[in-house]
Amino acid sequence: MDTPDLINKTFLAQNKTALSWRNSTTDQRIERLKKIKTWVLENEKKIQDALFEDFKKPAAETTLSEIYPLTSEINHVIKNLATWVKPKKVPSTLAMAGTKSKIYYEPKGVSLIISPWNYPFNLAIGPLISALAAGCTAIIKPSELTPHTSGLIKSMIAELFESSEVAVFTGDVEVSKNLLKFPFDHIFFTGSPTVGKIVMEAASKNLSSITLELGGKSPTIIHDSADLKDAAEKIIKGKFINCGQTCIAPDYVLVQNQVKEELMMEMKVAIQKMYDPEYKGIEHSKDLARIINQKNHIRLEQLIQDAIEKGAKFEFGGNITPETLYIEPTILSNLNENMDLMNEEIFGPILPILTYEDIQEAIDLINSKPKPLALYYFGKDDETTNKVISDTSSGNAVINDCVLHYLHKNLPFGGVNNSGIGKAHGHYGFLAFSNEKGVLRQRVGFNNSSMIKPPYGIKVNKII
Ligand code: NAD
């Protein structure tokens, strides 16, 4: 059977399962999640090996950023699901006196999850946890750029579920396009804004609801009141984990003029301490992943070249080895808006440093760009902190840290406009795959709207 026929057969089978899963109990849903958790914990080494094969991701980073987010998400769902699924009473307004109303959380049905390559295990299975918690079935299309991890996901799901419950279709863009023709009840896409637009257009043909978890340029502001050592360490860690290939990595830094030099010094110390503590050369570090493929390696090399040709200056790094897809953690200064680096999501180990005099300059620059996925602010001054948070728009914001919010189970995670639509994680993930159905119960023989029926006459005027 070729792929389109198999997709059709799987989609129809999942529609049947979705009907029978509508009323699945909390315990049944938790059982499905526990199967995943057990498999993940028992196969940690296999997951680490697959990611190492795909882009030399260090094992510790895999545990930290691909496995822990999933096991902790499952634990959080297990603890809270009974509360989330319970119909929620809402109070009656005056005009609704005598009625009783509740919100029911019904599973949307059959869902499609399309995931990217950069956290390939976490970003395929994370949304699946939310889908299963909500009582949905799912078809997953992982990235073709991480064949080892995508293959592992396929065999894991085949071991744990019937394809009529959860199925995986590996393959390239064509597979994705074929899947997008089907009238899914919800599509959860994680990837670039460019492909997000294609997914949204395809979803509109069937009016499938969507969650779009996209990317963008997440700014990082350093105020002169910041603890610069603390800020430098946190930014270096958040920027260079996964070799900078993180949707919420600090994309560029805006630092107040008078503290720039000290920040540069602290950043260089932090890179040395994290990636080359024994002064053997960063290229020998076992803790730095590689660029995903040659195409992206060339793209990043060109971003550096373009910036240097237009006047940028190396503050740190710049060494590149194309054969091993290595790019040294690189810090650039003396940048301007004509550089490609300042106009596309970097998604690699290059950190541009811009300076500002007055905080309004930094805010204006951020507001002149599409709304970012995250915004980071380092400083101890409450007034400026509040001004930055209230005068800018971003999917999430973090004060005096970066990237950390990803792991907070009670915060909605996601973007706004160009960086995404809808939210994920914990309760917000559950809601993404649920239809919040308002149900109103009237008393028999009682009519709240007895005044508003024909003949209307002048009675209608009395209700406003
Ligand atoms: P991508 O958009 O190129 O691909 C994502 C998925 O879409 C893949 O499975 C791919 O096969 C599929 N796809 C690609 N082109 C398609 C098309 N024309 N039609 C249908 N499907 C198509 O993204 P990527 O390069 O894998 O990942 C990097 C991007 O993802 C970055 O922009 C990053 O910021 C973003 N991202 C966002 C989050 C988040 O949570 N918001 C997390 C990780 C990555």
Descriptive notes:
The protein is of the alpha/beta class. The chain has 2 domains: 4-214 and 425-435, Aldehyde Dehydrogenase, Chain A, domain 1, CATH 3.40.605; 219-413, 3-Layer(aba) Sandwich (Aldehyde Dehydrogenase, Chain A, domain 2), CATH 3.40.309. It is built from 14 helices and 18 strands. The chain has helices spanning 3-21, 26-42, 44-55, 59-85, 122-134, 147-160, 173-179, 193-206, 228-240, 260-275, 294-309, 359-367, 382-391, 426-432; strands at residues 88-90, 100-107, 110-114, 137-141, 166-168, 186-190, 209-213, 218-222, 250-256, 313-316, 320-321, 326-327, 330-333, 350-356, 374-378, 396-399, 420-421, 434-441. The strands form 4 sheets. The chain has a 7-stranded mixed β-sheet, sandwiched between helices. Strands 5-4-3-6-7-17 form a 6-stranded mixed β-sheet, with helices on both faces. Strands 1-2-18 form a 3-stranded antiparallel β-sheet. The termini are far apart. The mean pLDDT is 96.
- Overall 3D geometry? globular
CATH architecture of the largest domain: 3-Layer(aba) Sandwich
Q: Which ligands are bound?
A: nicotinamide-adenine-dinucleotide
Biggest β-sheet: strands ordered side by side in the sheet: 10-13-14-9-8-15-16
Number of folding domains? 2
Q: Assign the CATH topology of the largest domain.
A: Aldehyde Dehydrogenase, Chain A, domain 1
Helix content: 40-55%
Low-confidence stretches: none
Total number of helices: 14
What proportion of the residues form beta strands (DSSP E)? 15-25%
Number of strands: 18
SS class: alpha/beta
CATH-level-4 superfamily name of the largest domain: Aldehyde Dehydrogenase, Chain A, domain 1
Overall mean pLDDT: 96
Protein name: Aldehyde dehydrogenase
GO molecular function: aldehyde dehydrogenase (NAD+) activity
Family: Belongs to the aldehyde dehydrogenase family.
Active site: 213, 247
